[in-house]
Amino acid sequence: MHNDLDTYSSPQSSCPCCQLTHCLSWKKITKVIRKLETETRLAAEIGQSLLQKNEVYVMESNHLKGQVRKTIGVEEWERNGILNESVVDLENTNLKCAALTKDLEQTRLEIEKLELFKYKSHQSDTREDTLQSTLEDTKQELMISRKAELALESKYKKLLARYGKLLLCYENDDCHMRLTLFFFIC
Predict the structure, then answer these.
(1) Structural domain that includes position 110
(2) Burial of 26 per CB tally in 10 Å (0-12, 13-18, 19+)
(3) pLDDT at position 178, please?
(4) What's the pTM?
(5) Looking at the 3D structure of the chain, how many domains does it have?
(6) Cα–Cα dist 179/163, whole Å
(7) What are the residue ranges of helices labelled H in the chain?
(8) Other C-beta atoms within 10 Å of 33: how many?
């Protein structure tokens, strides 16, 4: 049958069935076969054109995919670079915070020491004021004691002078009376 189709497709002047040159059936079949051959060639050309366009689209698609991958890779690399920089910045900031925390703790300890010294200084000032007041009181008592001593010395000297006079008077008998008077006055 394949051979029959080959014979039908080739232009023959007579019909293979009836051997007539002007067979209407043969003309219709030949016309249909030529039309199908033309449509088949056209379909093959369209298919070939579509295949070529598909190959172009596939190449463009692969190229675009490559560019997108490169772009994504670059963006990811940049993002990773930014993230790495951020990590380094955060680590540096963390180190600075740790140093500041240590400085803050040392400053807090120094402030506590200063507050303790301030408290002790205040206690010393209070004690100094108390001692100063005690010293002033002692000075006043000393002055009073000196005045009393001077008064007693003066009184002692007066008594000593009277004793001397009395002794002289006593020795002189006539002072007996004066002695009575002296004891009466004292």
Answers:
(1) 2-185
(2) buried
(3) 55
(4) 0.37
(5) 1
(6) 10
(7) 2-9, 24-171, 176-185
(8) 15
